[in-house]
Design a protein that fits this description.
Belongs to the glycosyltransferase group 1 family. Glycosyltransferase 33 subfamily. It catalyses: an N,N'-diacetylchitobiosyl-diphospho-di-trans,poly-cis-dolichol + GDP-alpha-D-mannose = a beta-D-Man-(1->4)-beta-D-GlcNAc-(1->4)-alpha-D-GlcNAc-diphospho-di-trans,poly-cis-dolichol + GDP + H(+). The protein has 2 domains: about 1-120, Glycogen Phosphorylase B (Rossmann fold), CATH 3.40.50.2000; about 135-350, Glycogen Phosphorylase B (Rossmann fold), CATH 3.40.50. Helix content is about 40%, strand content about 15%. It has helices at about 1-25, 45-55, 65-75, 80-90, 105-115, 135-145, 200-215, 235-245, 260-265, 285-290, 320-330, 340-350, 355-365, and strands at about 30-35, 55-60, 95-100, 120, 170, 180, 185-190, 225-230, 250, 270-275, 295-300, 315-320. The strands form 3 sheets. A 6-stranded parallel sheet has the order 9-8-7-10-11-12, sandwiched between helices. A 4-stranded parallel sheet has the order 1-2-3-4. A two-stranded antiparallel sheet has the order 5-6. Strand 1 (about 30-35), helix 2 (about 45-55) and strand 2 form a beta-alpha-beta unit. The mean pLDDT is about 90.
C-alpha cells in the first residue's frame, strides 16, 4: 500500500508547489520572505526558488520539524518520513536567516543540520491578559446558554433568581456589581487540536483521582473542566468522557469563538497542557497564551519544557495521571478562600512582566536585518 500512497503524495506536493510558486511570483518584489516551518513541504523549496527569482533573502522560522509531525501518523521509518527529513535538512540549509523557538532546537539545528539559528521564544499576543470580573460574567452567561456546567447550581440570598447568575459569578442585587459566587467550582481549562501528540486519557484519569480525594473527605471544590478545540480525536475522547461517572466534576468540550478563547483563559483558575512535542524541541503555544493571562499551568513533561514552565515558579510539571491528580489536590485545597500554592504561582506570573510578541520581535529579530 506504500507505493500508491507515495505516488499520490508526490503528485499532491508537485501540484501544491506549482500553485504556490505561481502565487509567489505574482506578488511585488519583497526584500525578505519569512516562512514558518512546519509546514515546509513543498514551501521551503518553493520559497527558495522565489527568493532566487526576486533576489530576496529567505528567513525560516523553525517551530518544529515537519518530518517528526509526519512520523506521529506514519511511523519514524516510513519512506515518506525519511524523504521529508532529507528534504527539510537539505533545503533548510539554503536559507539566509533562521529563527527557532527554543535553545534546544537551536542546538539541534546547529549539530544535525549545520544551520545557525537565533532563538525567538513564542510570546502571547497583547489580548491574552487577565479578564475583568464583569467580562468574566458576560462570558459565563453566554456559555451558560449552551453548556450546562456554566449554569448556576443554586440561588443565594443576594440573588433571587438565576437571571443574573452563572456557576461562577452573580450580580449582587443590593450593589448591582458582579461578584464571584460563593461555593463556586474551580475552573480548569485545557485546549487541544485533538491529535496523537496529546493523550487526554491522562487528564481524565487524573480527574478520577481528584474525585476519589473528595470522596475520601479532602476539602476540595467541585471542578468544571473545559477542553476547547476541534480535531480528529474529539469524538473518541468525548466517548470516554461520557463513560465517566463523576459527581463533583463536570467536563465540557466547546468550540469557542476566537474572541472568547483569551477571555476564558483570563477567567480560569488553572490551565492544563498535555502537549508532547513530536521532536522534543518545540514549546506549546497554549502555555504561552495561558501565561500571558497570568494563568498557572500544570504541564506534562518533555525534554525542553523547562525553557518555558519553571516547576514551582509559574506552574507544575507532571509525568503521569497520578502526579497530576496530586497536583490538582495541592493547588485546589481550601479553594477559593485559602491563599495557597495556586495563588503564589499566579502572583509570580503577575510579577514576571513578560514581553509580548511585538516587543520580543523588536528586541530579537530586527537587529538581524541591520
Amino acid at each position: 500500500a506504500v507505493g500508491p500512497k507515495l505516488f499520490q503524495y508526490v503528485v499532491k506536493v508537485i501540484v501544491q508547489a506549482i500553485q504556490l510558486l505561481y502565487t509567489m511570483l505574482k506578488i511585488d518584489q519583497p526584500s525578505y520572505i519569512l516562512l514558518q516551518n512546519p509546514p515546509g513541504l513543498p514551501s521551503i523549496a518553493v520559497a527558495w526558488v522565489a527568493c532566487l527569482f526576486w533576489r530576496s533573502k529567505l528567513i525560516i522560522d523553525w517551530h518544529n520539524y515537519g518530518y517528526t509531525v509526519m512520523s506521529l501518523s506514519h511511523g519514524r521509518n516510513h519512506p515518506l518520513v525519511r524523504i521529508a527529513e532529507w528534504y527539510e535538512k537539505l533545503f533548510g540549509r539554503l536559507s539566509d536567516y533562521n529563527l527557532c523557538v527554543t535553545n534546544a532546537m537551536k542546538e539541534d539545528l546547529r549539530v544535525n543540520c549545520n544551520i545557525q539559528a537565533v532563538t525567538l521564544y513564542d510570546k502571547p499576543a497583547s489580548y491574552f491578559k487577565e479578564t475583568p470580573l464583569e467580562l468574566q460574567h458576560h462570558l459565563y452567561m453566554k456559555l451558560a446558554n449552551e453548556y450546562e456546567p456554566f449554569k448556576p447550581r443554586y440561588v443565594t440570598e443576594s440573588v433571587s433568581s438565576t437571571a443574573d447568575r452563572s456557576a461562577f459569578t452573580e450580580v449582587d442585587e443590593t450593589s448591582g456589581r458582579v461578584i464571584k459566587a460563593s461555593g463556586r467550582p474551580a475552573l480548569l481549562v485545557s485546549s487541544t487540536s485533538w491529535t496523537e501528540d496529546e493523550d487526554f486519557s491522562v487528564l481524565l484519569k487524573a480527574l478520577e483521582g481528584y474525585e476519589w480525594y473528595i470522596n475520601e473527605g479532602v476539602e476540595l471544590p467541585p471542578l468544571v473542566c473545559v477542553i476547547t478545540g476541534k480535531g480528529p480525536l474529539r469524538d473518541y475522547y468525548n466517548g470516554l468522557i461520557n463513560k465517566l461517572h463523576l459527581k463533583h466534576i463536570q467536563i465540557c468540550t466547546p468550540w469557542l469563538e476566537a474572541e472568547d478563547y483569551p477571555l476564558l483563559l483570563g477567567s480560569a483558575d488553572l490551565g492544563v497542557c498535555l502537549h508532547k512535542s513530536s521532536s522534543g524541541l518545540d514549546l506549546p503555544m497554549k502555555v504561552v497564551d495561558m501565561f500571558g493571562c497570568c494563568l498557572p499551568v500544570c504541564a506534562i513533561h518533555f525534554e525542553c519544557l523547562h525553557e518555558l514552565v519553571k516547576h514551582n515558579e509559574n506552574g507544575l510539571i507532571f509525568r503521569d495521571s497520578d502526579e497530576l491528580a496530586e497536583q490538582l489536590k495541592v493547588l485546589f485545597l481550601g479553594f477559593p478562600t485559602l491563599e495557597g500554592k495556586l495563588q503564589q504561582l499566579r502572583k509570580n506570573l503577575r510579577a514576571s512582566k513578560q514581553l509580548h510578541w511585538e516587543e520580543s520581535w523588536d528586541r530579537t529579530v530586527l537587529p538581524l536585518f541591520g
